[in-house]
């Protein structure tokens, strides 16, 4: 199921605000009404505004729909407005990416009078920074989304900000010229992204000349031809109140929200509703094959598309369950048969895409070695035919139903998730509780109905097959939100030294539990001969224990609506499992076995090994992962951080079961580990179970050899990696701190936020480089570790601009090294940091992992609760001190570029001879 807004809006005339009392049931009963009028105002009930569960849907006099959901479990708010316009609806500008360009300009272009200002000229201010929120916007083929999430105390400011974007955006010619250049560079950068190009090629093959087949970003020539007047005309036509939905979810009062939104939109009259008429989606008749070469892709990627249904078809529920049975979870049909048993694919997924505006498609996508792509395709068809002939089991259907239930529970953990669900449900169907009704109705599907879907829609004579292959193989390849913040955590230590943190919460009727065990080590334990054994050990440990087979583990977690995974980082390796609360007891039993008694079956190694090798091979196919790999290699020369957490291909190829058993035996130690369990569970019973289940974890601690801090010669260093990319990346780095250095860590974060924003882009670097249209992306960050880390800034842009980009980054870092901010600047930065961290830690899985890592690193499991006080204590002198100590240079500069001879040491640094990657020659 994919919720996409339905065709046609209702133009509302003047009236009092009313609640939408009639909600559609979804499915076939709603077909005729919803397909043409996705939200129809029922004026029969004008008294009530708030429903019993704190949810309200109101239409203002000008036709703006406002949805408010009170959620008082966490002091957070999400404010968003969605405009029903996207690349499909651009009319005479179709193919120019105009919706996307307007999105860039709308959030940037609002001008606002400063409070108390007496002058007639509006003053642009960075209101997001003042709010301390996280804000973004994005465009799809049929909608444009704007949102900000922040602490609940900033609700009024957030509502005002989003309202101004919609009603008061004064886009200047200068704004247009800047962002017009940015999106053109973004389009060019996307040419290097194989996944994006595959998506575009497949959409074009499936939808042909239908507007749904046009990329949201547009095509190069039409985009370049857009004018300032085009932007103003298109925005005026589409950004009218009846074409928008305004949603507020969080710790708010409905009456206050409605009053503020109504005031903000009072001077915005209803307008003509833009046309959303679309042609019929073209039929798929016969077998249409498209073969796409790409220079960066290493595997064959294929999508097999069958024509299917709209969102309102009665077959929706059974067809979605068929997709889940085929590919959701490790125990799914295609994963077991093709990835695990036959080992013919490295990944396989299915999706049932059912838009509201027309016929959708059922897709099967897989990745495989180019030479095995034909065999993999045949194997997919064989599995689909088996479902047609033999059907599915009741167990598979029940597991898929549980997964659908879990999806809804997971989606509702955060206010942003709730806001997203409310927006898509209502825009697509007119039913504010469509997802709840969908989850309920899907429970009635039978195995016989699922088999009927396979018979009805898998027509092997009518399908589209899109395959992307490496360019050099072209000639040989054929065609409940949890209230965790208010709960009290408990810390205790087992006799073997394992520290345990329990934080039980009470929430909704159905909740989640997440358990995580972190262990010191990770890449810090490895060298070039062993790099990757930690990742392989952690990953393979989930594929069987002394009590459970890999298939049993996969089946349980799929049935439990959860997941389990092992992973390796740069400072530790860890295991994490999350399930619905009624599956916690068995999940904890399996989890304890995975950590302490992994079986490491030989057959499972030969399933995981090619998947890891494929992931390693993909690193160099994307400029950003390639950039980070090169940065680590050249900066952390004497530290284990120089290596990749996923490992080296040669190590993975040669790894044996004996090595993995020894690695686990030597490095998993109770004294170096922390177990954290967060969520909805009985803490007394959980403690008793943990004391029994984790007694076999060996005592003692892992021995980690300290790494020296990076030293940089007086003239700095320049390292250049020649590439064939269309984008150049620049990294400027300098040695930094360890993670426990709190005295420097907090002021460094504040200075970083001033320089480039925190998580979200902003600050000096963003304003200058984006303002000059030089980069697609730019950011800076402090990356402390258990061993000394790095402070670095990175950017990506056109190769012709690489020198200017590097010079500007160095100039701003030198400026920062002697900068004394005002207390107001610090306060703004701290608001931004705290909001970002608050929003990141809403889910039980995020809370559990954060607590475990903080305890492991010596900061204390409750360190998160101390952060606000530590950040608020930062003073201007502290920021100046860390700037002088860490940022003045000399710098290590790393550049990945198709023009290696066109880059030299940035201004202010002595010139050194550029280095190239082994085996590479400069072009």
Return the CATH class of the largest domain.
Alpha Beta
CATH-derived architecture of the largest domain: 2-Layer Sandwich
Count of distinct structural domains: 4
Taken as a percent bin, the fraction of beta residues is 15-25%
End-to-end C-alpha gap: 49 Å
Strand runs, count: 23
Task: Describe this entry's structure for a reader.
The structure is a single chain. The protein is built from 31 helices and 23 strands. The protein has 923 residues and is α+β, with helices and mostly antiparallel strands. A seven-stranded mixed beta sheet has the order 1-2-3-7-4-6-5, with helices on both faces. Strands 13-14-18-15-17-16 form a six-stranded mixed beta sheet, with helices on both faces. β21 and β22 form a beta hairpin. α10 packs across α13 and α19 packs parallel to α24. The longest helix is centred in the N-terminal third of the chain and has 18 residues. The N terminus and C terminus are likely disordered.
């Amino acid at each position: 199921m994919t919720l996409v807004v339905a065709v046609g809006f209702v133009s509302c005339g003047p009236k009092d605000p009313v609640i939408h009392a009639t909600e559609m049931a979804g499915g076939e009963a709603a077909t005729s009404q919803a397909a043409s009028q996705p939200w129809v105002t029922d004026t029969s009930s004008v008294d009530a505004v708030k429903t019993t569960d704190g949810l309200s849907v109101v239409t203002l006099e000008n036709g703006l729909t406002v949805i408010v959901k009170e959620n008082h479990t966490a002091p957070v708010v999400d404010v968003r407005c969605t405009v029903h316009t996207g690349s499909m609806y651009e009319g005479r500008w179709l193919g120019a990416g105009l919706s996307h360009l307007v999105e860039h300009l709308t959030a940037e272009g609002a001008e606002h009078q400063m409070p108390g200002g007496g002058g007639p000229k509006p003053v642009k201010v960075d209101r997001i920074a003042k709010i301390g929120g996280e804000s973004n916007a994005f465009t799809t083929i049929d909608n444009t989304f704007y949102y900000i999430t922040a602490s609940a105390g900033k609700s009024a400011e957030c509502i005002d900000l989003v309202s101004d974007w919609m009603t008061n955006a004064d886009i200047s010619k200068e704004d247009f010229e800047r962002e017009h250049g940015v999106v053109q560079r973004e389009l060019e950068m996307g040419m290097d992204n194989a996944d994006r190009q595959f998506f575009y090629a497949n959409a074009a093959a499936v939808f042909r000349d239908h507007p749904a087949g046009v990329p949201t970003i547009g095509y190069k020539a039409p985009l370049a031809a857009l004018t300032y007047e085009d932007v103003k005309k298109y925005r005026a036509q589409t950004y009218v109140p009846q074409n928008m939905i305004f949603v507020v979810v969080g710790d708010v009062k409905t009456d206050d929200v409605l009053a503020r939104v109504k005031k903000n939109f009072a001077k915005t009259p209803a307008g003509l509703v833009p046309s959303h008429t679309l042609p019929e989606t073209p039929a798929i008749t016969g077998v249409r094959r498209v073969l796409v070469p790409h220079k960066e892709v290493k595997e064959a990627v294929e999508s097999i598309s069958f024509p299917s249904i709209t969102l309102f078809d009665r077959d929706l529920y059974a067809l979605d369950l068929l997709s889940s049975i085929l590919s959701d979870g490790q125990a799914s049909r295609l994963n077991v048969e093709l990835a695990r048993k036959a080992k013919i694919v490295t990944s396989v997924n299915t999706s049932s895409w059912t838009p509201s505006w027309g016929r959708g498609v059922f897709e099967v996508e897989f990745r495989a070695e180019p030479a095995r792509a034909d065999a993999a395709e045949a194997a997919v068809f064989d599995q689909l035919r088996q479902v047609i002939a033999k059907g599915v089991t009741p167990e598979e259907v029940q597991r898929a139903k549980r997964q659908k239930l879990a999806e809804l529970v997971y989606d509702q953990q955060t206010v942003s998730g709730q806001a997203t669900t409310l927006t898509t449900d209502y825009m697509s169907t007119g039913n504010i509780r469509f997802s709840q009704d969908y989850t309920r109705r899907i429970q009635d599907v039978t195995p016989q109905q699922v088999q009927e879907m396979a018979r009805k829609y898998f027509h092997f004579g009518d399908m589209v097959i899109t395959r992307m292959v490496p360019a050099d193989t072209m000639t040989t390849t054929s065609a409940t939100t949890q209230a965790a913040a208010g709960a009290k955590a408990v810390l205790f230590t087992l006799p073997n030294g394992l520290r345990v943190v329990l934080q039980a919460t009470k929430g909704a009727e159905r909740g989640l539990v997440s358990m995580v065990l972190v262990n010191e080590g990770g890449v810090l334990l490895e060298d070039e001969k062993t790099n990757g054994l930690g990742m392989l050990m952690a990953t393979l440990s989930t594929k069987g224990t002394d009590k459970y087979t890999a298939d049993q583990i996969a089946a349980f977690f799929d049935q439990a609506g959860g997941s389990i995974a092992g992973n390796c980082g740069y400072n530790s390796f860890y295991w994490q499992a999350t399930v619905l609360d009624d599956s916690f007891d068995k999940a904890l039993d399996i989890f304890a076995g995975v950590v302490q008694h992994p079986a490491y079956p030989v057959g499972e190694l030969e399933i995981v090994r090619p998947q890891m090798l494929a992931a390693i091979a993909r690193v160099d196919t994307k400029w950003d992962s390639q950039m980070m790999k090169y940065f680590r290699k050249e900066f952390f020369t004497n530290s284990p951080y120089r290596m990749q957490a996923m490992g080296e291909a040669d190590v993975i190829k040669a790894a044996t079961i004996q090595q993995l058993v020894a690695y686990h035996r030597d490095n998993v130690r109770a004294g170096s580990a922390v177990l954290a369990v967060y969520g909805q569970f009985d803490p007394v019973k959980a403690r008793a179970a943990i004391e029994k289940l984790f007694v076999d974890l060996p005592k003692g601690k892992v021995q980690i050899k300290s790494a020296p801090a990076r030293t940089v010669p007086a003239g700095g260093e320049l390292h250049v990696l020649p590439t064939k990319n269309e984008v150049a990346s620049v990294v400027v780095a300098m040695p930094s701190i360890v993670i426990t250095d709190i005295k420097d860590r907090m002021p460094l974060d504040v200075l970083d936020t001033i320089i480039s924003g925190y998580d979200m882009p902003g600050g000096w670097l963003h304003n200058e480089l984006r303002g000059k249209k030089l980069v697609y992306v730019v950011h800076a960050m402090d990356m402390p570790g258990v061993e000394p880390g790095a402070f670095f800034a990175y950017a990506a842009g056109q190769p012709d601009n690489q020198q200017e980009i590097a010079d500007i980054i160095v100039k701003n870092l030198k400026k920062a090294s002697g900068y004394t901010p005002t207390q107001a600047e610090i306060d703004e930065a701290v608001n931004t940091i705290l909001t970002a961290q608050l929003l990141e830690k809403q889910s039980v899985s995020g809370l559990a992992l954060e607590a475990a890592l903080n305890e492991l690193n010596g900061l204390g499991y409750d360190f998160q609760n101390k952060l606000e006080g530590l950040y608020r204590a930062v003073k201007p002198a502290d920021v100046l001190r860390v700037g002088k100590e860490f940022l003045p240079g000399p710098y290590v500069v790393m550049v990945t570029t198709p023009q290696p001879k066109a880059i030299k040491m940035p201004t202010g640094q002595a010139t050194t001879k550029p280095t190239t990657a082994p085996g590479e020659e400069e072009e």
